[in-house]
């Protein structure tokens, strides 16, 4: 067995950097949190090349004493905690004493700081050696400059994202800190250009700076106290949704977090109003007693754990659902009475159909009011994950007393005048995946790649299903929708809408592939696409591809884009839906192809212009449709429905028991 070595502090710091600082945005996050903990009211953030070349944070906080400046680079050196008991009562964003040490382990760092009434001093660190304290020039606060991040870990630097993607992730975090600290003035510079600025004028001003003026009029401002938990901020109304989750912000005791218990509660509150692939918008602050939450879960401090997940879930769900549903309690939760949703009676007034249970229970000597709707409350594991159905444990033996009779979920929706959504909407780019262009991967070693083999099998199958339509005999139709043709011992039923839709779709796709120039239709009023930093980075990355499809699109401001022209073939396209599909599910955004989304819209255009079911066709129109079909009975419409159904004489005679 090899000798066991005690690793040096330098090696330990470089290993720890993988947990604390994995990308440039991590360094920005840690340094902004240090500035906030220092009481800064003004913070400036500078980055170059997505933070790879430069990250600089300047604040007006309390500064660092001269004698402590070198110690700031030591591992586990912090001013935030001093005793073991402090870990259970954390009120600051940072507390581990790892951030500056790990940043200095993988970058070239310069720290300049000054305290009130003293001179400014400077310390430099080049990834291994900490320099001496030297005189410097700075009016107030602290300035930290980080250059060439991961310069001494080339493997990690090689796996960084592109400059634009790293920049977008940093911008996303900066916006979260602007929203989470609305009384702090921020300036954010990208490659020397001022990109974002807030003035510390409060939450409304911060939201307007980050998301624009359209956000607030579509949101409720809430302020609620339940079960010793304070919930406040802005939540989108019943009709305000976005195609991805990048507009969702939760701050627990001032810390930006991502927690499954809270997100599930909010999602369930919005469930009766949200359509598929639409996500609620909210900037929500939740303050809880420090003794019921553990923030010391992971070095990135992004997740937390609660002593009682059910209490947190129920409180958040109750507040938001009450506002959205317009119950009488909403008047207590919504700050501005002019935007309170329509108030509907509750059990205390007229015996609402919604069954509400009232029960109290005691925890840690405090009495909590569990006034939760009869929502199907999930069971959580201790780390906040939802248990699977087979793992769920029975609810605690509390005997609630129903004040009114219980009703089903659908009866509750009916009482709110909401239609339950039961249609499973499948993204079109998945529904007709076999129609995509043939994979152009090269054949390697004589073995064709799987996508190529699948495409060839599909073509061979289509050829087998192609028959000589010239011998078909028209026998009529039924419902003015299905055309009946006979040939030999076979009968073919043609869906006239599906067939015509497929023909139009193929024609549009062929035009799109073969045209050398794209005819465009100018818009009377340009369409303005307002985006956040992550969405803007994706559009910027695919801008040339979108333009090649026939869209005249150009930057309009910092993160917005203006669409001046659209392809003539798609002049009636719904641009909001098109870009919504394009930007849906930011987590898996890179796997969605712009071409596929455009094909979805072409399919919708084909559907809109095809003959409809129930429309009577002339004999000439029927003949023309069959000629366009060219006997290809294996086709499907762009949505995946069959164009033609074949029935043999044997099948029909079996139906009538002529044969067995």
TrEMBL record:
One of its GO terms (molecular function) is ATP binding. It comes from the Bacteria. Transmembrane segments: none annotated. SUPFAM superfamilies: ATPase domain of HSP90 chaperone/DNA topoisomerase II/histidine kinase, DNA mismatch repair protein MutL, Ribosomal protein S5 domain 2-like. Keywords: DNA damage, DNA repair, Endonuclease, Hydrolase, Nuclease. Residues 474-617 form the MutL C-terminal dimerisation domain. SMART domains: DNA_mis_repair, MutL_C. InterPro entries: DNA_mismatch_repair_CS, DNA_mismatch_repair_MutL, DNA_mismatch_S5_2-like, HATPase_C_sf, MutL/Mlh/PMS, MutL/Mlh/Pms-like, MutL_C, MutL_C_dimsub. Belongs to the DNA mismatch repair MutL/HexB family. This protein is involved in the repair of mismatches in DNA. It is required for dam-dependent methyl-directed DNA mismatch repair. May act as a 'molecular matchmaker', a protein that promotes the formation of a stable complex between two or more DNA-binding proteins in an ATP-dependent manner without itself being part of a final effector complex. This is DNA mismatch repair protein MutL. It comes from Candidatus Coproplasma avicola.
């Amino acid at each position: 067995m090899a000798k066991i070595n005690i690793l040096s502090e330098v090696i330990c710091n470089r290993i720890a950097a993988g947990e604390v600082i994995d990308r440039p945005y991590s360094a920005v996050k840690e340094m902004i949190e240090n500035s906030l903990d220092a009481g800064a009211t003004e913070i400036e953030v500078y980055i170059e090349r997505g933070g790879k070349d430069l990250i600089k944070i300047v604040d007006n906080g309390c500064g660092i004493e001269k004698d402590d400046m070198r110690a700031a680079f030591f591992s586990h050196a912090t001013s935030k905690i001093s005793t073991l008991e402090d870990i259970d009562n954390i009120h600051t964003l940072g507390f581990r004493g790892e951030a500056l040490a790990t940043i200095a382990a993988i970058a070239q760092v310069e720290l300049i700081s000054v305290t009130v009434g003293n001179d400014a001093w400077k310390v430099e660190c080049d990834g291994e050696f900490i320099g001496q304290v030297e005189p410097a020039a700075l009016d107030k606060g602290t300035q930290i400059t980080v250059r060439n991040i991961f310069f001494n870990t080339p493997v990690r630097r090689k796996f960084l994202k592109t400059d634009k993607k790293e920049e977008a992730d940093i911008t996303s975090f900066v916006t979260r800190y602007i929203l989470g600290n609305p009384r702090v003035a921020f300036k954010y510079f990208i490659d020397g250009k001022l990109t974002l600025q807030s003035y510390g004028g409060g939450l409304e001003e911060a939201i307007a700076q980050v998301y624009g003026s359209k956000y607030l009029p579509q949101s409720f401002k809430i302020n609620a106290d339940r079960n010793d938990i304070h919930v406040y901020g802005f939540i989108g109304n019943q009709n305000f949704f976005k195609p991805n989750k990048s507009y969702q912000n939760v701050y627990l005791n001032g810390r930006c977090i991502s927690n499954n218990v809270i997100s599930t509660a909010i999602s369930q509150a919005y469930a009766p109003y949200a359509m598929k692939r639409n996500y609620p918008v909210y900037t929500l602050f939740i303050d809880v007693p420090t003794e019921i939450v553990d923030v010391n879960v992971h070095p990135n401090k992004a997740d937390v754990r609660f002593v009682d997940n059910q209490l947190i879930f129920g409180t958040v769900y109750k507040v938001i659902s009450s506002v959205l549903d317009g119950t009488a309690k909403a008047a207590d939760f919504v700050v501005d009475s002019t935007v309170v949703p329509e108030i509907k009676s509750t059990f205390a007034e007229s015996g609402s159909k919604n069954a509400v249970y009232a029960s109290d229970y005691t925890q840690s000597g405090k009495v909590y009011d569990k006034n939760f709707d009869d929502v199907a409350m999930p069971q959580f594991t201790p780390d906040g994950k939802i248990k699977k159905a087979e793992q769920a444990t029975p609810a605690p033996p509390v005997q609630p007393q129903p004040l009114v009779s219980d009703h089903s979920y659908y009866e509750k929706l009916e009482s709110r005048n909401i239609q339950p959504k039961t249609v499973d909407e499948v993204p079109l780019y998945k529904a007709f995946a076999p129609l995509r262009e043939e994979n152009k991967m090269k054949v390697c070693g004589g073995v064709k790649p799987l996508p190529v083999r699948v495409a060839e099998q599909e073509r061979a199958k289509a050829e087998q299903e192609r028959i000589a339509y010239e011998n078909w005999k028209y026998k009529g139709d039924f419902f003015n929708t299905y055309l009946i043709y006979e040939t030999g011992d076979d009968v073919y039923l043609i869906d006239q809408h599906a067939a015509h839709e497929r023909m139009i779709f193929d024609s549009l796709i062929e035009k799109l592939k073969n045209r050398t120039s794209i005819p465009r239709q100018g818009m009377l009023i340009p369409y303005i696409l307002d985006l956040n930093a992550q969405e803007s980075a994706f559009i910027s990355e695919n801008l040339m591809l979108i333009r090649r499809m026939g869209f005249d699109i150009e930057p309009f401001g910092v993160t917005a884009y203006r669409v001046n022209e659209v392809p003539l073939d798609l002049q009636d396209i719904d641009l909001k839906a098109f870009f919504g599909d394009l930007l849906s599910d930011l987590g898996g955004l890179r796997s969605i192809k712009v071409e596929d989304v455009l094909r979805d819209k072409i399919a919708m255009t084909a559907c809109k212009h095809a003959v409809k079911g129930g429309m009577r066709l002339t004999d000439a129109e029927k003949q023309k449709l069959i000629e366009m079909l060219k006997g290809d009975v294996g086709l499907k419409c762009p949505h995946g429905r069959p164009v033609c159904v074949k029935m043999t004489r044997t099948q029909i005679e079996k139906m009538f028991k002529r044969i067995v």
